[in-house]
Design brief:
Blueprint: H1 14-27, E1 33-38, E2 41-47, E3 54-62, H2 66-74, E4 86-96, E5 99-106, E6 114-126, E7 131-138, E8 150-152, E9 155-166, E10 169-179, H3 186-193, H4 196-207, H5 211-214, H6 224-235, H7 242-249, H8 252-261, H9 265-279, H10 283-289, H11 295-299, H12 305-311, H13 315-324, H14 329-343
Parallel strand pairs: 6-8
Antiparallel strand pairs: 1-2, 2-3, 3-10, 4-5, 5-6, 6-7, 7-9, 9-10
Helix pairs in contact: 6-8, 8-9, 9-13, 13-14
């Protein structure tokens, strides 16, 4: 266990300062520089304004669901198994599955002392990615004292950005900025940190295949907010009807269908067919058809399951719905004509 004391003094504003440094570097035009591409991983470096230390990141695509990778990121004690330079890792306090305080011991080569850090890790769900951003930054915790033989890291910012590509294909970017503290010069620390993102992601590609992660459920209560955000992002590429989107997000099976279909054209047709099969049951559809002259004709879709199943296999109707992005007049006309032809 970690020895606790009230005498520790950690720089409380480090996280804010580091975020400001990253923003300042971007504003100053100090872009990420591609250093190498190996093992399917692109590695970058960037100068951080007002600091002698550099920031590093790596990007790759992993053949795993976001739920699998999320399960790995939440499993803090196993960080040393795959995360480069992490010697020990422990959860100090868990506020939610994706919001916690952690303690890390970082491995630095002899004769240099190892480093440790007290940090907060939080995950933000982003529909615009679509995916998540997990940020770990130094925090102030007076109960966690400095330990003999270790140098407390004065500044650190880590970030994992996950972006959905396909159901079992996730793009992930890992970036790190670290001021090592002690007497180590930046010219010594920078080269030792440069490979950390690459090594970590290379290890993660294999580690995520372990039994305890590979069956992670994207639709359980922990992962569902992420899955819903991804589903909404996929839908908004084609649909501008809030009722259609609401219908999907209210149905776990439709969310699953949407993620399985993904962004591909064929996938979007499968999604549309599944949506229409359920949408005709909703009060939204009943309200849509009320002002029309063919209300009674279209109303048959609300009770005739066999007819609905045949309609959602009609390529022309599916393509029209995708083109219109909503239950517009042309879509209703096509559906009405389909019902009429079926009855004739």
């Amino acid at each position: 266990m970690i020895r606790k004391t009230t005498t520790a003094a950690i720089i409380a504003f480090c996280g804010i300062m580091l975020a400001a440094c990253f923003q300042a570097a971007a504003a100053a035009g100090k872009d990420w520089k591609l250093e190498e591409e190996e093992d399917g991983i692109k590695s970058y470096s960037r100068v951080v304004e007002d600091s002698k230390y550099h920031a590093f990141k790596a990007t790759t695509t992993i053949d795993a669901t976001m739920a699998q990778i999320g399960a790995v990121l939440r499993d803090v004690p196993n960080y040393p198994e795959w995360m480069a330079k992490v010697k020990e890792a422990e959860v100090l306090k868990r506020y939610s599955p994706n919001d916690m305080n952690v303690y890390l011991i970082l491995n630095f080569p002899w004769p240099t002392s190892d480093r440790d850090a007290v940090a907060t890790a939080k995950t933000e769900v982003r529909g615009d990615l679509p995916g998540t951003i997990t940020t770990t930054r130094i925090m102030d915790d007076p109960e966690v004292g400095e330990k003999d033989g270790l140098v407390r890291v004065p500044a650190m910012l880590q970030r994992y950005i996950m972006s959905f590509k396909e159901m079992k294909k996730t793009e992930i970017t890992y970036s790190i900025f670290l001021e090592a503290g002690g007497n180590l010069p930046a010219m010594t620390v920078n080269p030792s940190l440069e490979s950390v993102p690459h090594e970590s992601l290379k290890n993660l590609k294999e580690f995520v295949k372990k039994e305890q992660y590979k069956n992670a459920n994207p639709f359980n209560p922990v992962n569902m907010p992420v899955s819903e955000a991804i589903a909404e992002s996929i839908l908004r590429t084609r649909f501008n009807d809030p009722h259609i989107i609401e219908t999907v997000l209210a149905d776990v099976k439709l969310v699953e269908t949407t993620l399985n279909g993904g962004f591909s054209e064929e996938g979007l047709k499968e999604i549309t067919a599944a949506i229409m099969g359920e949408y005709v049951k909703t009060p939204y559809f009943k309200a849509d058809i009320q002002p029309r002259e063919d209300t009674e004709l279209l109303a048959k879709l609300t009770t005739n399951r066999e007819m609905v199943d045949e309609m959602v296999e009609d390529e022309e109707i599916l393509e029209l719905i995708l083109a219109e992005g909503a239950m517009t007049g042309p879509v209703m006309d096509a559906m009405g004509l389909f019902v009429k032809n079926e009855m004739d």
